[in-house]
Design a protein that fits this description.
By secondary structure, the protein is mostly helical. It has a single domain, classed as Na+/H+ antiporter like fold (Up-down Bundle), CATH 1.20.1530.20. Helix content is 72%, strand content 0%. It contains 20 helices and no strands. Helix 4 crosses helix 20. The longest helix is centred in the last third of the chain and has 28 residues. The chain is globular.
Length: 416
């Protein structure tokens, strides 16, 4: 057996255990565990105490975990909830986001802060759907227009951001070649989705799956892992970012697996694998990699954090003004704050940027720091705004909005 040390992985795993426990002892401290995991990595890593480093074991595991993280993100996609006015508003909002992001990215590139304006635009364009949905549920607004429109916008943004990251920063180096490969990849993804969907309708196969799903075979979990690894391998074979393959695998599973009544625990099992072990390792190791010492040793470099936080708010928040036809002022502002909440994709994009030479370590640290602040500040402010309104509904008077609310709500997936 090769001489491999597991000391660093043990510390990382211990941090992953202790963070939610500590947060559980202080229920009034409403801080997402992902933020504390990153900060713990910073404190224990080379920037802080220097007790832990990213060795080969942690590095390899973190790469694998990134794929599983994007798989879980794709699993949150609800394709059936998109359509009509909500989809059009979300799509138009993302176009505005990219335009604003390019303006911000090219401005930062001209100032010498970043090496790739388009990478900045893509990094600023996503929303943390997994952090947004709990806030909407806490406010009782997940089924209200503000909730449905925000989720639709976040869904479109997450999917488009992953595609653009793969298109612009793939291993092929040619945008035209990458576009062709992405098209072929999309066709194969549809073929696989249709094949899986049809196979799932087989009565005989369904009986076998039902019999084995809660045994030691855990057959549905194994099938999900095969789907994930298959799409990741396919993406790698096509020379595009493997995170796209992982994300598409999750979206395909979410789309074809509509009969959750026969296996209600599948997603819980997948989330247990991800959030119980793999995902915390990724965020703690991300904190270990952050060059905060280099960032804050230079006041000019430290200035990048508030600038990038403001850019994140403007690039993702301003498109929420498209919802003004449906939402009142506080609800629109809450939607803007929630759309500007982004951390997991920022971490993933900056790591790819550093690996490809498109971004320096100091700038990556500033980006992640801005993402951490967005998670700490924006959801709490949005929750206050939503609770101040009518259960977060954000409806205007029916005489002024009329059918707009109903149309947008139905377009976002509400019952007609």
């Amino acid at each position: 057996m090769p001489d491999v040390g597991f000391d660093n992985l043990f510390v990382v795993s211990a941090v992953a255990l202790l963070v939610p426990l500590l947060l559980g002892f202080v229920p009034g401290l409403r801080v997402p565990s992902v933020v504390v995991e990153i900060l713990a990595g910073v404190a224990l890593g080379p920037t802080g105490l220097g007790w832990v480093r990213v060795d080969e074991v942690v590095a390899v595991l973190a790469v694998l975990v990134l794929g599983f993280l994007l798989f879980l993100a794709g699993l949150e996609i609800d394709v059936q909830a998109l359509g009509g006015p909500a989809l059009r508003s979300a799509g138009l909002g993302y176009v505005v986001t990219i335009a604003l992001g390019l303006a911000a990215g090219l401005g930062l590139q001209a100032a010498g802060w970043v090496r790739s304006g388009p990478l900045v635009a893509v990094a600023l364009s996503a929303t943390s759907l997994g952090l947004v949905v709990p806030v909407l549920k806490d406010a009782g607004a997940d089924h209200a227009p503000v909730g449905r429109l925000t989720v639709a916008a976040a869904t479109v943004a997450d999917f488009a951001a992953v595609v653009l990251l793969s298109l612009l920063f793939s291993a092929t180096g040619s945008t035209g070649a990458t576009t062709a490969l992405l098209s072929a990849f999309a066709v194969l993804a549809v073929v696989v989705a249709v094949a899986v969907r049809r196979a799932g309708r087989s009565m005989r196969l369904g009986d076998v799956l039902l019999r084995l799903q809660d045994t030691t075979a855990q057959i549905r979990v194994r099938a999900a892992v095969v789907l994930l690894v298959g799409f990741v391998a396919l993406a790698a074979r096509f020379g595009i970012e493997t995170i796209l393959g992982a994300f598409v695998a999750g979206a395909v599973l979410a789309t074809v697996d509509r009969d959750a009544a026969s296996h209600p625990h599948l997603r819980t099992k997948l989330e247990a694998i991800g959030y119980g072990f793999l995902v915390p390792v990724f965020f703690v190791s991300s904190g270990l990699r952050l060059d905060l010492r280099g960032l804050f040793s230079d006041p000019a470099a430290a200035l990048r954090v508030p600038v990038l936080l403001l850019a994140l708010l403007l690039v993702r928040g301003l498109p929420a003004l498209l919802f003004r036809r449906v939402l009142d002022g506080p609800a629109t502002l809450a939607a803007a704050l929630l759309q500007a909440t982004s951390l997991p994709f920022v971490v993933a994009a900056t790591q790819i940027g550093v690996a490809t030479g498109a971004m320096s370590g100091v700038t990556a640290a500033a980006f992640v720091s801005a993402g951490v602040l967005s998670v700490l500040l924006f959801p709490a402010a949005a929750l206050g705004l939503l609770r101040r309104g009518d259960a977060g509904a954000g409806r205007r008077d029916s005489t002024t909005v009329g059918g707009a609310v109903g149309g947008a709500a139905r377009g976002a997936g509400a019952a007609p």
